[in-house]
Amino acid sequence: MQTKTSDRLAFLDREIAALKEQSRFIEPAVLESPQDAVAVINGKKVVNLTSNNYLCLANHPKVKAAAIKAVEKYGVGTAAVRTIIGTMDIHVELEKRFAEFKQTEASLLLQSGFTTNVAVCQSLMDSDRDLLISDELNHASIIDGARLAKAPRKICPHKDMKALRAILESPEAKNARRRLFVTDGVFSMDGDIAPLPEITELCEKYGAVLMVDDAHASGVLGRQGRGTVDHFGLQGRVDIQIGTLSKAFAAVGGYAASTKQLRDYMCSTARPFLFSSSHPPSVAATCLAGLDVLYSEPHLLENLWNNTKFFKEELKKAGFDTGLSETPIVPVMIGDTAKAKALSARLFEYGVFALAIGYPTVPRGKERLRAIVTAGHTVGDLENAVAAFKKAGRELGIIRA
Ligand SMILES: *Cc1c(COP(=O)(O)O)cnc(C)c1O
User: Fold this and answer.
1) Backbone angles phi, psi at 198, to 5 degrees
2) Mean pLDDT of 55-63
3) Quick one: 143 and 261 in the same domain?
4) What is this structure's pTM?
């Protein structure tokens, strides 16, 4: 029997009503199949343009087999934080392999990409004499990391190198004990790439530590998907590379790839590392197997980029505005939350799943649909998706009939 515990939470009814009024209330769709290019969502089989499963590793036979084998060898969990007795040899192996992947000396594994950003910002920016500088479109986890850091922060207008230079030349920056500039490598809402060569030069010139969050670039950009640093040939010049194991690697987790000193320091200071338990060993095995697949099946990365090019070109030809995208993240700009949601609903009727993104996740006027292409979509899947976009777009007056 259910009992109503308390009416002291009744204020939430009003809050929820307000969210609904502002089109900000979210009811997550439910996936009833593996995460794949075609999936069963809310009871319907659809072309899935919504996940970050870029290389379709989530349901890859070799990756699944590795996870099962790890459960048999190590059990299901560690029941401890890393610093107590939650570090297994397989976690250490993963850290070594992902440091190699990012061409750095060492890496430190944390529970998620979100946690990793929070941990690094909090560990390095631990005094009000420091200064944290952040691109205005950085991911929420960097914003929260900056809030938890003791350092004051400055927000740099998106990819504005003049503004970054002015901040680095300001007395606050000059007088700071440490300076840290943080940027997404690939921005998650627009799919544009940070101008890392220019950023690197400025950070070198003004002595700022540079941290790049490659959540959407790892497994996507650069040779063998090594990320933006490799893409621009900046090996050895970016101090900290953040990667996630939750997107292209389709498991869950994050890591900071950097020097051995950063790893050592964070092992003793990073609060999520010290106070939250470690990954199940099967997760580590999943990511190790994913890395092997990435190296041994280069056609996955090729498919991803061929599919991206094809899908974006077809949408543009049909008259859609795909914004600033340079990657498999394809925003379809609408400029109105209700209309973006209507497009998403109509697409679902036509067998395509792509989510609408409204304010405050994106600024007002920049409301959109976001579609993400993967290596596993066939040309047929993408042709069907484009046909659905055209039909729904004409019906809703988003493109000309
Ligand atoms: C998704 C994302 C994260 C969070 O990664 P998780 O591993 O899912 O916690 C961090 N930064 C960026 C830029 C992201 O897009």
Assistant:
1) -70, -40
2) 98
3) yes
4) 0.96
Same structural domain, 334 and 228:
no
Please state, for a pLDDT cut of 90, what percent of the chain lies above it.
95
Active-site choice (188, 218, 278, 344): 188
Indicate which atom in ligand 1 lies nearest the CA of residue 184.
Answer: 13
The residue segments making up the domain with residue 265 are 61-296
What is each CA distance from 201 to 165, 196, 204, 271, in whole angstroms? Answer: 10, 8, 5, 31
CATH of residue 118 = 3.40.640.10
Count structural domains, the chain. Answer: 2
Contact call for residues 105 and 112 (beta carbons, < 8 A): no
**61, 70, 91, 322 from 66: Cα distances, Å:** 9, 6, 14, 38
279 among known catalytic residues: no
Q: Give tens-digit pLDDT for 221-243.
A: 999 999 999 999 999 999 999 99
Q: HSE on the CB side for 78, CA within 13 Å?
A: 22
Kindly state if the Cβ of 114 falls inside 6 Å of ligand 1: yes
Q: How far is the CA of 72 from the centre of ligand 1 (A)?
A: 30
The tokens for 133 are 């500088």
Are 287 and 308 members of one domain?
Answer: no
pLDDT at 1 (0 to 100): 57
One domain, residues 47 and 78: no
The contacts of residue 175 (CB under 8 Å, 6+ apart) are none
d(CA 236, CA 293): 26
Partners of 333 in the β-ladder: 368
- Residue listed under structure tokens 């040939």: 233
C-beta of 185 in contact with ligand 1 (< 6 A): no
Residues 234 and 366 in one domain: no
The pLDDT tens digits of the residues spanning 208-221 come to 999 999 999 999 99
| Predicted local distance difference test score (pLDDT) of residue 4 | 66
Q: How far apart are CA 375 and CA 298, in angstroms?
A: 11
d(CA 396, CA 335): 13
